[in-house]
Amino acid sequence: MDCAACTSAIKKSVEKVPGVYSASVDFDAQRALVATDGKADSQAVLKAVAVAGYRAEILDGGGHGKPRS
Length: 69
Prior knowledge:
Distance between the termini: 29 Å
CATH class of the domain at 5-51: Alpha Beta
Oligomer: single chain
Number of helices: 2
Strand order of the largest sheet: 1-2
Radius of gyration: 11 Å
CATH topology of the domain at 5-51: Alpha-Beta Plaits
Order of helices and strands: HEEH
């Protein structure tokens, strides 16, 4: 990511993936945290990042439960 505005483009693209509850993108850390229902396709998430014009990799694919309310 080159600018803080990039985070919004990535977040919007990833949150369109079926099964994604939310996405939080940290510009400074150059990372995104994606909360899913456990059925979201990780390859679809990576493709959504690519559609936004960026590259990504899965660092932790282990589900950690539902997001807190």
